Amino acid sequence: MAPFFYLGHGCFFPKSMLYCAEDLNTVRLDCRDRVMTDYMNAPIAEVVKTILEDGVIDDNEVKLLKKRLYADDTIDKEEAESLFTINDAVKGKNNAGSWTQLFADAICDFLLADETSPGVVDDEEATWLIEKLEGDGEIDANEKALLKSLQNRAKELSPNLQAKLKAWGI
Length: 170
Hints:
The protein is built from eight helices and four strands. With 170 residues, the chain is mostly helical. It has two domains: 1-41, no CATH class; 50-167, no CATH class.
């Protein structure tokens, strides 16, 4: 019999310590916190790979991802693209409700908190966003929430994006 329980995400828990763990799920979450803490400085692609191991994104993963994304108080393009990667991979699954909010907020922050056009989705940003949204052939519920959030938060939207919003019925 192995002296460890495998908890997922590369975590093992010693069976000898199990007597002091009131709840194995708490141990799993604590373990995932430690793994994510190790990922605070890891490339975002590694963080995404870890999150997508089980094919869904849960509340704890959302919490840890948010901590990772906002560690430097800004969302960069690689992080924004990674959010679309996660969203496309978990679309239609039983994900945490907090995922939609993080996805919309972080992409809005990426687009609206830049130095070039603060508060505005300019033509270059609109082109990028439209490519990401149409990349998988459909605008899902999380992407619609993102677009509605952009409409509410932006001082101005590119005419190209405004036309797409109209065409998508948003």
